[in-house]
Amino acid sequence: MRIANKMYKMLRSVVIAVFSVILISNAIHALDLEVFDLTHAQDGDAIAWPIYPQYNFTILQRGLTEDGYWLEYNAFEMAEHSGTHMDAPCHFGEGGLRVHQIPLEKLVGPGVIINVKSKVENNNDYRLALSDIQDWENKYNIIPDGAIVFMNAGWSQKYPNKTLVFGSDDHMDPTTFHFPGWHEDTVDWLLKNRNIHVIGGDTPSFDYGLSTTYPVHKLLGANNIPGMENVANLDSIPESGSIIYVAAFKIYDGSGSPSRVFATVSGATNNWSSKCLIILMGIFYCRSY
Ligand SMILES: [Zn+2]
């Protein structure tokens, strides 16, 4: 009887120890998030299509007030489609969602980064092909539900040099532009075969520079999918395994919105101190029972 009692106590200790370690390690893992900024700063160099007004920042107050305390405030004017920004579905789709109508949960999702840098190296007019999607899926598995899929063409490094970003010396004439984008057949396939929250990339339009008919814009509009342009720093996150957030201004009736785009990657810091802490907690629990 005494042996059975001892065995029971030992078993209980082991169960408590195991559960404690699992709980603590989960809690630490949840906090072990690294955050990555995928946004270009909005300023006078912000890149926008030539038809749109330029960014304008006015300092209204910066200094000591008459009462002797420091005070700063400014005003800014900008086009909706400026710098790192979202195209709402209504931009090219009559009756499509406007910015304030897009559910916030549709602006968060697993990050899928399609790297086409080697393809665009000698071809500014490259359009992201279905084979690029297949290559990604062969490497990382099927595109997860609710994905935010971005093309990484290496364009972030060119920003905000207009000649490099537009691929043209004439920044005012879109018929001269040469930069990569998405092929409409690829987008059509994705929308029919995968559950996608947002599509976009690091170039100034998800239709490539040579386009004059904007078929990808029309497809996204017709399917109520927001698109992203001039996304930054896509080299900083893994091609699979991040969560991407599109924090657009909630502009009432907006056709687009400058956005703070960012990603989180859990366990990215590979934190050895937290792992040591988990092991120590385990030893502590085992010894105290
Ligand atoms: Zn736009």
Structure description:
Helix content is 29%, strand content 25%. The protein contains 7 helices and 12 strands. The chain is globular and about 90 Å long. The model has no long low-confidence stretch (mean pLDDT 92). The strands form 3 sheets. A 7-stranded mixed barrel has the order 4-10-9-7-5-11-12. The two termini are 20 Å apart. The chain has 2 domains: 50 residues; 207 residues, Putative cyclase (Glucose Oxidase, domain 1, 3-Layer(bba) Sandwich). The longest helix has 30 residues. Helix 1 runs antiparallel to helix 7. It is an alpha/beta fold and 289 residues long. The structure holds zinc ion. The site of zinc ion (ZN) has 5 residues, from strand 4.
Strand content: 15-25%
Radius of gyration equals: 25 Å
* Helical proportion, percent range: 25-40%
Task: Assign the CATH superfamily of the largest domain.
Answer: Putative cyclase
What's the count of strands? 12
SSE run: HEEEEEHEHEHEHEHEEEH
Number of helices: 7
Q: In CATH terms, what is the architecture of the largest domain?
A: 3-Layer(bba) Sandwich
Report the major sheet.
7 strands, mixed, barrel
CATH domain class name of the largest domain: Alpha Beta
Residue-averaged pLDDT, rounded?
Answer: 92
- Taken together, the total number of domains comes to 2
User: Spans with pLDDT under 50 lasting ≥5 residues?
Assistant: none
